[in-house]
Amino acid sequence: MRNKIFILLVLSGCFIASLSSLAPIWFLWDTSWPFWSSYGISSLWGTEWYPFESLFGLLPAIVGSIWVLIIAMGVAIPCGLAAAIVSSEILPASWQNLLRVSMEVLAGIPSVVYGLIGLWVLLPWLQQHLGLLTGHSLLAAGLILSLMILPTIMVMALDALRLVPAEQREAAINLGLDWEQRLYRVLLPQAWPGIRTGMLLGLGRALGETMAVMLVVGSMDRLPQPIYNILEPAQTLTSRIGREMGEASFGSMHFSALLACGLVLALFASLLSLLAHRKSKQAHP
Amino acid sequence: MKALLILLALPAILLPTACLLYILYQALPALNWSLIAGSDTANISNMSSAGQALWHQISGSLLLMMLANILAAPLALSMAFFHALIASRQQKMILMTFLQVLQGIPPIVYGLCGLILLVHLLHWGISLATGAVILAIIILPLLSSNIIHALERIPAEQTEAAAALGMSKAAIVLRVWFPLAWTSMLTGLVLAMARSLSETAPILFTATVFSGIAWPDSLFSPVTSLQTHIFYLAQEGSNAQAIHVAWASAAVLLALVLLFSLTALFLRRYKESS
After folding, report:
1. Predicted ipTM?
2. pTM of the model
3. How confident is the model at residue A3 (pLDDT cuts 50, 70, 90)?
4. Which regions of chain B are under pLDDT 70?
5. What SS3 state is found at A78?
6. Where do the domains of chain B lie, and which CATH numbers do they carry?
7. Can you list the domains of chain A with their CATH numbers?
8. pLDDT recorded at residue B53
9. Which of A10, A119, A284 has the highest number of chain B CBs within 10 A, making it the mutation to test binding with B?
10. B109–A265 C-beta distance less than 8 A
């Protein structure tokens, strides 16, 4: 009898949990439906976003998001990977543990704190050294994001490198491979699944990050002119939602369009996390 | 090659640390007891909220965190028990994939959905309850998978021995699993707490206001929180005092989050050593 009650409790808990996790997704779809039905899928590549004139083109924010991701990954992957290699292959074990612990702790720093640093340290610096008007730019957002995802990428890469069996390293040494060859031929290929998972997780985090990006990106709704101009204020999907969520009136087309941005974001992000975890499953069965 | 790697690695290792130190450096001048406790009322009068005692923000943040975890913990526990006791192999796989996808969805999306359902459709308004529910949904996948992993580390022999003794599932959970795995389950909970303290975007328009709230009257009144306080103050570019308070708030928030993540680390060590 007691057992049955317990099982019932567990099942009802699961039911509530899955219901409350699925409800947001349904609301995302349901509330953005008016937007999709009246503007259609083509608004994904519309270039104008003026909510007050009923122009809802998502392309500027999507391009902004993509640029920010490219910059963040371009900085964070080489640095994070290098830090992981240095700490697992060059530094002594005690240092390595210390680094890993501090990186884990750093990964938990709230994004709004990074936003503060970006706004009051990075922006003035960019303004001074690149001669920008305010410093608000895609570049600033990308750099702040790279700082935020560095710990994730580094910890995952470090763990993957540590998991390479000692026999493999010894065999490589016995074969007479020098340090570089061991790195490229043995360590990195062996650790690659873990490294890739870390990169995809970092990418997902960078895509969904709101506060830090919102504070430094400048929130300018237009395509970068020309398209590779990353030194001007721009907009990303998350910063648009964050900026306009408070001012769009409930039930309006503007609100519905913001939900559409959220839907696009959620789809990309869940795709990324699926990809990240599927690959890692194959690597460590 | 080694030199190049070290050159690349240096910023990765030094910059985050430098950031931490810089926050402390900026915060120390403004950070004193009166700022937190608010005994110093003289300089508040002329600058609306920048001079407000941080105590209200801290308690608001902690309140949101506690409520979110109280809401999420039973649900996460039942997910974990379902995974460990009831689910078939296939159901386990579906559950894990489900949790991973949910973990990937950006928090701001949940914030948007909470704004629709809780604030507008259920008329809860901008309130503590709304923020707590949204935060609970955000940390639910993280908490569930943490607890699932904690339960998975229990040696199968222990469970089998208990089952062979004829213990019911409820008894196995209470008498075998809790004593064995409480530290790792607690670690998961503490990590979820740290996470819910650091989320900002989803509660920005759903739970918090800038100032004027000392202590929420009820579940359905708005709160102030440290996270959103930093956000609002950071944008007051002309007010030097506001920026100082922003750095100080950032240091306090960091201290709180670090407190939780270091507790989690300590618990893990404790588990390994015992």
Report:
1. 0.88
2. 0.90
3. confident
4. 34, 37-52, 211-214, 274
5. helix
6. 55-273 (1.10.3720.10)
7. 54-283 (1.10.3720.10)
8. 72
9. A10
10. yes
